[in-house]
Design goal:
The protein has a single domain, classed as L-arginine/glycine Amidinotransferase, Chain A, CATH 3.75.10. The strands form six sheets. Strands 1-5-6-7 form a four-stranded mixed beta sheet. A four-stranded mixed beta sheet has the order 4-3-2-19. 26% of the residues lie in helices and 26% in strands. It has ten helices and 19 strands. The chain has helices spanning 33-47, 60-72, 92-95, 115-118, 123-126, 128-133, 167-173, 179-190, 237-249, 303-314; strands at 6-7, 15-21, 53-57, 80-84, 98-102, 105-112, 142-149, 156-157, 162-166, 194-198, 216-220, 223-227, 259-263, 270-271, 278-279, 288-290, 293-298, 319-324, 340-343.
Length: 349
Amino acid sequence: MTETAVRFPAEWEPQAAVLIAWPHAGTDWSARLAEVEETYIALVAAIVRFEPVLVCVADEDVEAYARARLASARVDMTRVRFAEIEYDDTWLRDSGPVTLRDGDGFRLLDFRFTGWGGKFEAGRDDRLAARLHELPELSGNFLQAIDFALEGGAIETDGEGTLLTTWRCLHERHPQLGRDVLTQKLSGWLRQDRVLWLERGYLEGDDTDAHIDTLARFAAADAIVFQACDDPEDPHSPELHAMAGELAALRTRDGRPYRLFPLPWPRPIHDRDHDGDRRLAASYANFLIVNGAVLMPAYGDPADAAARDVLAQAFPDREIVQVPCRPLIWQNGSLHCITMQLPAGSLAL
């Protein structure tokens, strides 16, 4: 990759903090708020072992409640900061800013957030990145507003100029644009010189139109971790098998095959209490890399332990920490979807 002043860092590079938004009764979590709060408490407790966390809260009452719940769980509150800001829901991977290094500073990319193609109301979430930039902790960075629908969960970078994404998602958001045009736009805004497209792969219960962070993730510039399906009777088998074939055909910048780490397939999880009987999108690929560790979603499934072993192989120098995420998939996302990392130096704490 040619060195430029602006660069999209990989998730495994040093971080200043992780950004989340606290669930409350005004979000879609209201029907199962008690369950999902336990996941958020476990998540914050895991993050602060390795780095600070910046928690968005809707108002001072939500902050007081979140602060009390975290303190009662003996979370290290010296590493927790709160920011009062409006949001529709808590999927900050998609509504939060994408941060690029810009010389000695940082650039916050504020793409349009449309509620995954207009599926949900997203007016406040679409303003979230700009509101975050008003905070003293982030106001020192440059904010670049981009009138183009793109979610952070739709893109993966190796930090060296290679982007991994899915055609299904980007084509759904921009059906009028061809692949060459989309490649050019992504390359320009994100400072990438290679865009690798996956055609196949999906999860039932996923309303993001196949975000890459539910399917395949870089573990290094030459390594990809991906969600496999080893049950030939499962309806996901053909698509995920085809996706595995696509990944095997990809080549690194120097022409070698990627080192591939297939993740095990959890047993089907269904929601039979709400909206009839629907299958939920449980993916182990939706992990979060933090300083010195990988936080992985756990679903109370026997495959959790096997997934941990795969991630330990893919990230041999990092601790693998399980976070219980079964409540999250009720709303069609998991651990990576509710978080957004902020690179080291981008946050004034």
